[in-house]
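> forwarded from #structure-qc
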């Protein structure tokens, strides 16, 4: 059974997609079967994996009762397998409003590939709309990247409230895996202070593996690689490898 992890924060540009790619690559490096699902109409994850101009996407799977997610999966040579997205997915937020059981659609679609993968990572959009709710309903865990900047706390309470409502109403087994500090600059007191404050507020939920701020992440996208191959021995690659081990050590009972 796959462990399904939603990577979410309604704040934009905090490193959700980068974490999906890098953690996915690190889990793959350890020999696990990994699927990345692009739940964002920006399609950043798909583009970063070199997937352009695709006709059928996760949008079609969510809209068409008959269509299985297998029909859209793309195997990439260098990176993880992908369920792609593009701008069409933007329509889904509105179009699904009147769908019965709209929060459960993704969960239903993932059921058929549950045994094909060890890990399914859901890259959420920067909003708490119906697509993110679908991810929270399908997942066992939520990983929350936050920038180690002074605005890190903005929206965090709203996000945690949404997760707890989903747990109460839609998905009792949902847990917060952890809060992952990103864009961490260990040379600045500011970065360190933000992580300390996060710990004061959220205790052990804060993962003790801050992801360093580095321009290399921007370069990986143009190179069409993950940080693990692009800069294999960099501190950033090392951090994501550590995160993968932490995820592995995280409870076996998180498997669905
Ligand atoms: N640790 C980091 N250090 C420096 N740059 C980073 C880091 N993580 C991500 N980036 C860069 O910051 C930008 C935003 O990252 P990313 O797309 O992963 O964020 P996101 O949360 O998925 O954004 P969105 O909310 O738009 O989906 C990208 O250009 C990425 O390369
Ligand atoms: Mg993103």
């Amino acid at each position: 059974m796959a462990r399904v992890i939603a990577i979410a924060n309604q704040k934009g540009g905090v490193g959700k997609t980068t974490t999906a790619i890098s953690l996915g690559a690190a889990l793959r490096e350890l020999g696990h079967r990994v699927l990345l699902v692009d739940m964002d109409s920006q399609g950043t994850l798909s583009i970063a994996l070199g997937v352009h101009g695709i006709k059928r996407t996760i949008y079609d799977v969510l809209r068409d009762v008959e269509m299985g997610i297998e029909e859209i999966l793309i195997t990439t040579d260098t990176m993880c397998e992908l369920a792609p997205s593009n701008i069409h997915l933007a329509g889904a937020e509105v179009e699904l409003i009147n769908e019965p059981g709209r929060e459960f659609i993704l969960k239903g679609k993932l059921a058929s590939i549950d045994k094909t993968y060890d890990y399914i990572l859901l890259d959420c959009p920067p909003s708490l709309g119906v697509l993110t709710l679908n991810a929270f309903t399908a997942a066992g865990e939520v990983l929350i990247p936050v920038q180690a900047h002074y605005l890190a706390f903005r929206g965090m309470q709203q996000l945690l409230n949404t997760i707890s409502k989903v747990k109460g109403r839609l998905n009792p087994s949902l847990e917060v895996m952890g809060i992952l500090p990103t864009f961490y600059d260990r040379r600045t007191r500011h970065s360190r202070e933000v992580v300390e404050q996060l710990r004061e507020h959220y205790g052990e939920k804060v993962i003790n593996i801050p992801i360093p701020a580095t321009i290399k992440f921007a370069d990986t996208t143009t190179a069409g690689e993950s940080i693990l191959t692009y800069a294999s021995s960099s501190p950033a690659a090392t951090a994501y490898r550590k995160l993968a081990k932490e995820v592995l050590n995280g409870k076996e009972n998180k498997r669905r």
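QC bot note: The first strand starts at residue 3 and ends at 7. Residues 16-17, 40, 44, 123 surround magnesium ion (ligand 2) (CB under 6 Å).
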